[in-house]
Amino acid sequence: MRSTTAWGRGAVGVIVLVSALASPALAQDDEIGIPLGASPPAVTIEDLDGKPVNLSDYVGKKPVLLEFWATWCPICAGLFPRIEAAHARYKDRVQFLVVAVAVNETPRSIRRDLERHPLPFPVLWDTNGNAVRAFHAPGTSYVVVLDTAGKVVYTGYGEEQDIEAAVGRALPL
Asked: Which spans in the chain are helix H?
């Protein structure tokens, strides 16, 4: 018999996969995910060693970019050069985070992928879908940018997002 938790993860997986394949790119004007101007609730996920990480610990120091990601997501792979370019430009001014979804993933499979394709910023593990629910993530390759006050200034989805412009919305003039 499947537990409710297992069913919930499976349902999130179907939603993530269908959403990831549905559209190449959607930006904040399409009103996807958490609304602009919202402050996401405090949510605890894990690092790849299973230690709890409260995402709110990153808020308030500098802007934050979160990407909902999976090793098996080709759209995430296509988006990565844009995120890498923004990170190279803004790494001292913006906290970049990857939230690995727990759909057909394990911390071990993520570590294996990171050995082959290292990421220059923290990769966190959304083992129970807490961050997916808190940010209303419609799928992988979903990006949320928070300003220093923790307000959502950008949401986008897909490979063709202008990540540098998205990050620019969170930086003081």
From this structure: 4-22, 74-90, 107-116, 130-134, 163-168
Query: Taking the CA atoms of the chain, what radius of gyration do you get in angstroms?
Result: 15
**pLDDT tens digits, 7-18:** 344 434 433 433
The reported pLDDT for the residue numbered 32 is 83
In a domain, 106, yes or no: yes
Which of 66, 118, 68 is CA-nearest to residue 97? 66
pLDDT for 27: 53
Domain that holds residue 136: 4-168
In a domain, 109, yes or no: yes
In a domain, 173, yes or no: no
Confidence band for 31, pLDDT divided at 50, 70 and 90: low
How many domains, in total, are found in the chain?
1
What is the length of the chain?
173
* Residue 138 maps to a domain: yes
> 120-142: per-residue pLDDT in tens?
999 999 999 999 999 999 999 99
pTM over 0.85: no
CB 123 within 8 A of CB 53: no
